[in-house]
Write a structure and sequence with these properties.
Layout: H1 11-32, H2 35-44, H3 53-90, H4 98-126, H5 131-168, H6 181-193, H7 198-211
Helix pairs in contact: 1-3, 1-5, 2-3, 3-4, 4-5, 5-7, 6-7
Length: 213
């Protein structure tokens, strides 16, 4: 369940909020990300003397690999955010959510978890009680947690859109033996209390059923 639901915000509204915030942040990432300067900094930065030359080389190579993946996906990630705006605002075409889910899983989850694993491995070699190690772990968890949460609620929103899209394929009139009398009765009762259309009511009912299932 989305956390902001306790403040009265729906899943769609929260996904919309996170999408806009992520889009703004990614625009700044795309403009400030400099590959050559960052790679040069990685290979020129000093490492503790306790680490052997081979270990330092492995760490530098893996960090460079993570940075290159983030570099090659930064504009693709920005494009998926723009595409994501369509299903977020119009609540249709769930397939347009998939590109963002895929790129975000690579860029924000896989790369960040790899970076965290490298940092934790280095901390174990040097001694986990050191203050830089503690600071690194705190900063990384503070960075990964919002990204992971947004990915999870976006996946939930994608599943909700799939339910609505699948429901649209049902015929308007079905044989009596195949009717879901509970759902039809709920729709009829709610129609008597509002002027909303049947399709909108069906969408809300199914979305609520999915969220609390």
């Amino acid at each position: 369940m989305n956390l902001l639901s306790y403040l009265g915000m729906s899943l769609q509204s929260e996904v919309c909020l996170w999408t806009l915030l992520g889009l703004i942040r990614n625009i700044f990432d795309a403009t400030l990300f400099k590959v050559n300067a960052n790679l040069k900094q990685v290979w020129q930065m000093s490492m503790p003397d306790e680490l052997s030359t081979s270990v330092q080389g492995v760490l530098r190579t893996m960090i460079s690999g993570v940075m290159l993946v983030q570099c090659f996906t930064v504009y693709v990630y920005l494009a998926t955010y723009i595409v994501l705006l369509y299903p977020v605002f119009l609540e249709e075409r769930p397939a347009l959510v998939l590109p963002w889910l895929l790129v975000a899983a690579i860029r924000k989850l896989l790369c960040e978890l790899t970076s965290l694993a490298l940092g934790l491995g280095t901390c174990v070699l040097l001694g986990a009680a050191r203050s830089p190690c503690v600071k690194f772990v705190i900063v990384k968890f503070a960075s990964i947690t919002p990204s992971f949460y947004m990915w999870v609620i976006t996946l939930s929103y994608y599943n909700a859109l799939k339910v609505v899209a699948a429901f649209k394929t049902f015929p308007n009139v079905v044989p009596a033996s195949h009717c879901d009398y509970g759902l039809e009765l709920a729709i009829r009762r709610r129609r008597t209390k509002s002027l909303q259309g049947e399709e909108q009511l069906r969408r809300k009912l199914l979305t609520n059923l999915y969220q609390y299932s």
